[in-house]
Specification:
about 25% strand; about 25% helix; Rossmann fold; alpha/beta
Length: about 350
């Protein structure tokens, strides 16, 4: 995110409209990835503010988040819409650039009114199709907030990476939007190591590689592991390795920064005759050895599993090397609700 020299104290994010707890969980995890002691406030179901103020970090959070449609520096707060523009000047918008005013909570007329004032103060041109800057104005309980992104409208490319657009396809493959959220919940930064121990067709590996992580996949079935490698090559994505092994017995990893995975269950997945509960019990034990945490570096394990599995009891039986931090539920059909459990590795 590039703006002229101006320091900011807060950021604002607008979440997508799904009626789930997952969008807030994802944005919170991402903010804490880049500023571990950030103050985060959920203004309403879709508006989140935080003390994350570094523009580069705000940009990374915004571009990484699957369930976020806008992220930017928080410019001003006011109860009067036109007063929001008092902090906008030519130092904020580069010369000969275009802008648009957008909102999910205000009318087009109100956005146009604010846009006219911003135009008069900056001499910038309005472009509703492809602006260089986006001013986001939203209603919160205390009034209104104005955010600014210098990256234009956020663009999504889920369709190009959908399971059936890949070289290798299985019905159990996860869609890229959910796969990206799972990776983000693990709080792994670009350049750090990420593993999916039940990688299947490589859905999570594709997203982690796109976000610049050192991606490692593990898959028990030879032909599926080859398919995952084929999918990564199809998108010309680098990855560390795809290992053929049984992750439930032992993880062939010495140390990893974060793990996210969808454990096998149901007819479309290969469980090699094991029940999901047994797979998860054995996997938790093997994962704890390669995810040693410290007071300065917390590590997270994200598992998507049937909600009928009592993961709290598993953690207790396993020796409490993990703590359940949060859980999100995704309804699939009347016989299946998925749980996304985020576990923090306790300090060694």
């Amino acid at each position: 995110m590039k703006t002229n020299a101006r320091s900011f104290k807060e950021s604002v994010f607008v979440l997508s409209g799904e009626e789930l707890t997952l969008p807030f969980g994802e944005i919170r995890s991402l903010i804490l990835t880049y500023l571990k002691d950030s103050k985060i406030q959920k203004q309403n179901e879709r508006i989140v503010t935080s003390s994350l103020s570094d523009l580069d970090s705000i940009s990374k959070v915004t571009q990484r988040a699957a369930y976020c449609r806008f992220g930017g520096a928080l410019i001003s707060k006011s109860k009067n819409i036109l007063s929001l523009a008092d902090q906008v000047d030519k130092d904020l918008v580069q010369e000969n650039r275009t802008f648009a005013v957008d909102s999910i909570s205000l009318t087009m007329a109100e956005c146009g009114e604010l846009g006219a004032k911003i135009k008069s103060k900056t001499d910038a041109r309005v472009s509703l199709e492809n602006p260089d800057y986006v001013f986001q104005v939203e209603a919160i309980p205390e009034g209104l907030v104005l955010g600014l992104s210098s990256q234009g409208y956020k663009k999504f490319h889920w369709r190009t990476r959908r399971p059936r657009a890949r070289r290798f396809f299985l019905p159990s493959a996860i869609y890229p939007k959910l796969a990206r959220a799972l990776v983000n919940l693990s709080r792994v930064k670009e350049g750090e190591s990420f593993a999916d121990p039940f990688c299947g067709t490589g859905s999570l590996l594709i997203e982690s590689s796109l976000m610049g992580m050192r991606s490692i996949g593990i898959e028990i079935t030879r032909w599926i592991s080859r398919g995952a490698a084929l999918n990564l090559k199809h998108f010309t994505l680098p990855y560390e390795s795809i290992i053929r092994a049984d992750s439930s017995n032992s993880l062939p990893l010495r140390e990893i920064d974060g793990i996210a995975t969808d454990v096998p269950y149901g007819r479309a997945s290969s469980t090699k005759g094991k029940k999901t509960e047994k797979i998860m019990e054995e996997f938790l034990s093997s994962a704890s050895s390669c995810m040693r945490s410290s007071s300065s570096r917390k590590k997270y394990l994200v598992i998507m599993h049937p909600s009928t599995v009592d993961i709290k009891e598993m953690i207790r039986n396993q020796g409490n090397s993990f703590q359940l931090q949060e859980q999100h539920l995704l309804y699939v059909h009347r016989n299946l609700t998925r749980a996304i459990s985020i576990l923090e590795r306790t300090a060694a």
